[in-house]
Amino acid sequence: MLTGFGRIGADVINAAQIDIGGANIAGLPEIARTYTQTTDGLINIDIGGINNTAFDLLEASNAANLAGALRVQLIQGFVPSVDQIFLIMLFASRTGEFDTITGPDLGLALEAAYEMPSLTLITILRLRFVLRAHLRHPRSGENHRRICSHNHKMHRI
User: Fold this and answer.
1) pLDDT tens per residue across span 97-120
2) Which of 49, 80, 90, 120 could form a disulfide bond with 54, CB atoms 3.0-4.6 angstroms apart?
């Protein structure tokens, strides 16, 4: 596991676990070259408030090649509300996305916005909808009732 802050003057390949800043501490490390996270990699991001210094931010001066998992951890008793935005990564270019984003269950979801040159997380309401349809069988003419339930795919926090 790699933890801490500061500047890393080399490429970083995460095939294990990175904890930005350290356990329960928001950090702002800079990778002077390329950050690559493999499908086996996990990066922990701490969020302890809405001020820029209250949550982790990883900066890759070159590219970010993303896969694997991102785990959001809330620190310092912080509880997010709807429509809060957290800038968690900066990069010069990007390929891929995190396969999964997880965090504590607070009834909200995280929407990941991958827009150059950053990755931001936005807290939104978790959506669930039920579709009710009355269908008429084309041959028999019988009425059939179908109920489908679907959870909108967002990342739960």
Assistant:
1) 999 999 888 788 888 999 999 999
2) 49
Q: Please give the backbone phi and psi of residue 53, each rounded to the nearest 5 degrees, phi first.
A: -90, 0
Cα end-to-end span (Å), the chain: 23
pTM of the model: 0.77
